[in-house]
């Protein structure tokens, strides 16, 4: 009777540790059947354990985005050595992507397999943000050091080409026009470098968001019209919508987004701009095109400095936009489908002027 009581107390203690362990845990028998999992594991997979317990653990491998060969090697190693380890991105049962570290060990005394799963999504995203910040810092240092060296000779080149325009023949003028275009392009690239390198702690002020969007659209409308593109604005906000921030920087962000949308639609179409509330404290400005779209494997790279899908792009526009929006306490969400279009949602906190 005493032995039964001790065993019961031991199991109760183990159950407490199992359920409240900081990482996800689940047991699998020698036939590969899931026997039990703790609450952390349910949270990682985003599913009730009763829908998994009793099923073959190999079905969970379908959640892993790794190639088949990697998953096969993982299982083979586990069978041969009684332990295996894997870093992987998974898609949960609710469709959310997470980054996990899985360690599986065979319990020799019970012939059961214990899997420990650590959700490293936050660490992964923090490292990504850190790398992004370090990249921006490097760009800033690079831009500051080369700006003076490049701008001086470009100014001289522009002056000489203007003088030559007055004395050359028609063929020469055509060549000089090409040179002028290239100089202008170099100046645009340098300007983008300098914009990215600037600190975003500029002087903030209250401004009306709808007025700013209207101003940007009016400015970009002629360029859109030349490409057979119509810009359609939808307002779901009747009241004044004030933002606290740098008006000029925000203007650059929206101009760059509409410019990208126009360039993504060589065959024409519509650009839809919607301004709407997303709860009581945030406003969303969605800019949606009917363009070429972005491949899924490129979506998580588009805000990285120097990454671009355009042959003539610098890869700095979206990086700068991301920097500006974050400095205003906001975020950017992107959805895209190839040959259908891309949607950028700029979510910003609403402000009240006191």
Please specify the SSE layout and strand pairing:
Elements: H1 2-19, E1 24-28, E2 34-37, H2 39-45, H3 68-81, E3 83-91, E4 97-107, E5 112-119, H4 121-165, H5 170-197, E6 205-208, H6 209-226, E7 229-235, E8 242-245, H7 247-263, E9 269-277, E10 282-288, H8 317-327, E11 331-337, E12 341-349
Parallel strand pairs: 7-9
Antiparallel strand pairs: 1-2, 1-5, 3-4, 4-5, 6-8, 9-10, 10-12, 11-12
In short:
The protein has 354 residues and is of the alpha+beta class.
Structure description:
There is one protein chain. By secondary structure, the chain is α+β, with helices and mostly antiparallel strands. The chain has three domains: 2-119, PAS domain (Beta-Lactamase, 2-Layer Sandwich); 121-198, Helix Hairpins, CATH 1.10.287; 202-354, Heat Shock Protein 90, CATH 3.30.565. It has eight helices and twelve strands. It has helices at 2-19, 39-45, 68-81, 121-165, 170-197, 209-226, 247-263, 317-327, and strands spanning 24-28, 34-37, 83-91, 97-107, 112-119, 205-208, 229-235, 242-245, 269-277, 282-288, 331-337, 341-349. The strands form three sheets. It has a five-stranded antiparallel sheet, sandwiched between helices. Strand 9 (269-277) and strand 10 form a beta hairpin. Helix 4 (121-165) packs antiparallel against helix 5 (170-197). The radius of gyration is 28 Å and the shape is elongated. It starts with a helix and ends in a 5-residue tail after the last strand. 21% of the residues are buried. Mean pLDDT is 80; it is low at 1-8.
């Amino acid at each position: 009777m005493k032995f039964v009581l001790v065993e019961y107390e031991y199991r109760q203690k183990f159950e407490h540790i199992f359920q409240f362990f900081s990482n996800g845990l689940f047991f699998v028998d020698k036939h590969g059947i899931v026997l039990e999992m703790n609450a952390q594991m349910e949270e990682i997979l985003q599913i009730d354990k009763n829908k998994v317990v009793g099923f073959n653990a190999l079905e969970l491998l379908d959640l892993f985005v790794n190639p088949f060969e990697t998953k096969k090697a993982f299982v083979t190693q586990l069978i041969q050595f009684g332990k295996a380890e894997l870093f992987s991105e998974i898609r949960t049962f609710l469709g959310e992507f997470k980054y996990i570290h899985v360690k599986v060990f065979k319990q020799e005394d019970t012939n059961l397999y214990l899997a420990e799963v650590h959700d490293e999504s936050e660490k992964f995203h923090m490292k990504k943000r850190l790398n992004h910040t370090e990249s921006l810092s490097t760009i800033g240092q690079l831009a500051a050091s080369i700006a003076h060296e490049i701008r001086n000779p470009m100014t001289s080149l522009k002056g000489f080409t203007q003088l030559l325009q007055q004395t050359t023949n028609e063929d020469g003028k055509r060549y000089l026009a090409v040179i002028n275009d290239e100089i202008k392009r170099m100046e645009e690239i340098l300007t983008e470098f300098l914009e990215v390198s600037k600190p975003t702690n500029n002087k903030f002020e209250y401004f009306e968001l709808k007025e700013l969007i209207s101003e940007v659209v009016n400015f970009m409308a002629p360029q859109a019209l030349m490409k057979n593109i119509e810009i359609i604005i939808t307002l779901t906000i009747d009241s004044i919508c004030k933002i606290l921030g740098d008006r000029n920087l925000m203007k650059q962000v929206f101009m760059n987004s509409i410019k990208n949308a126009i360039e993504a639609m060589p065959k024409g179409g519509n650009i839809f701009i919607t301004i709407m509330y997303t709860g009581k404290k945030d406003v969303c400005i969605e800019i949606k095109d009917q363009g070429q779209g972005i491949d899924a494997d490129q979506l998580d790279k588009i805000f990285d400095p120097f990454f671009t899908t355009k042959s003539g792009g610098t890869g700095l526009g979206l990086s700068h936009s991301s920097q500006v929006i974050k400095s205003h306490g906001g975020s950017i969400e992107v959805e895209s489908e190839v040959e259908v279009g891309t949607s950028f949602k700029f979510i910003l906190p609403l402000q009240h002027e006191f």
